[in-house]
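Database export, one record per block. Field names are fixed; values are copied verbatim from the stored entry.
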Amino acid sequence: MVDAPTFKRLFTRILILSFAFTAGCVVGPDPRRPDTVLEPSDQFIYGDGSTEPAELAGWWREFSDPVTEELVLIALENNTDLRAAAASVLEAQGILAQATGARLPVVNLGFDYSRSKGSVNFPTGREAFFTTTFDLGFDVAWQADLFGRLRRQEQSAATLVLAVEADRIAAMHSIVAQVIRARVTVATLSRLVELSEANIEALGRTLTLVEDLYEAGTETSSALDVRLARQNLAAAEAELPPLQQQLTQAELALDVLLGVRPGTGPKLSTLSTLPPLEPPPTGLPAHLLDRRPDLAASQFRAMAEQADIGAEIADLYPDVTLSGSAGLTSSTLNELLSDLSQVYAGFAGLDQLIFDGGVQQGQVTVARAQAERAAAQYAGAVLVALQEVEGALIAERFNRLALAASTRALDEAQAAEDLARDRYERGVETLLNVFEAEGRRRTAEEQVASLEEAVWDSRIDLHLALGGDWGIDVPEPTLNGAADEKPGPRVRPKWHLNRFEHGPYGSVQN
């Protein structure tokens, strides 16, 4: 029989050996960033070729629009989708805490008291007896992670925390972009409403001119001209209500993004004004994609799948479980602390899979396939990101060219309308030419407003495609889910995992 000191020494040695063996044995591939088509020195094809990275932190401020900044800040504080994304981060951190705790011993402490009554037959008759028991003790159970299954599971959970945190930041990008787009839509529709109202006034003046000339009996105006002028004015008045309806719907959609009750959002007097934008910043090297949180999330999910391979492989190897218990038990409370009341037990178990018909090996195959699929999806996401950046660059370039030409066309159309009306008043031009000139001016105004919106949209697409910073403090995610606070308003998220620092163009192991 093993005495208490010998048992304690044996149990301690088993624990030490298990910890030492566990620390040096982890099966399966180490997570690494999947390969992509990018190299560190790559430039965007439609950039200007500069090798210096552009400063895009707090990218909504690049629009130099106080209205936009106010709306963005309201949305970041109140948007319900961002609250849901934050809750997802907490959920992922809770899952990581479970995976971390699974590697540690489980210790239970308990105290029990029982009182029972029984009876027994004696020759003299049946007599009752009472039994009292006091139990105080604790149990310890620990699974020795000999081949790193639990560590791989913890590594996978930690990587997923980074992925979900990246999802949260990507959601912030998306919400801010939606807010700015909604603000641009409201501004454009407001401008179109103003232009429609101004056009109605202009057509009203034309009708008054035609009616005055007709009543004066001049040959310049006829009854047909009066009818056409009235029809032209009525058609313009019919265009206004649909625009007002679209404007109201756009304002309601903006209120939802801001997280306020639709119809109660801020009424900003300058909402219809879109400030002119400077050309995009010079120098857009491809490594700026390193800031894109959606790519980071895809990368981390691919790496989590790689960690899962090791967890499945480890299930093919033995599991060792160590457990023990110690405590005190006595029938009376005053004897509970005596040496005779001590009880203890220890257990060490080994569990090795012998045959399961290939089930576990199939799970390893599934894990490898899932990792390959995630790697391919990540490589595809990088390609799509490149397409988005190149597309936004070329879109803004051509939209600016079209806007410049449309602005010149509007100037000419306005001058032509003024000339046609003057010539009509002097009787050397027909009313149809005035109507045509008014229509051309109206079309040019709408085209300019539309292209101003397109320039803003392409700039939003560019910032979004590059993963522009937000101008707010963004916690830097780490393996254990903790956040390192960065001072200052301009913080770029930087993703870390173990000894790796990743970018979209390759894997670097320190």
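Remark 1: The radius of gyration is 37 Å.
Remark 2: Residues 295 and 382 are 7 Å apart (CA to CA).
End of record.
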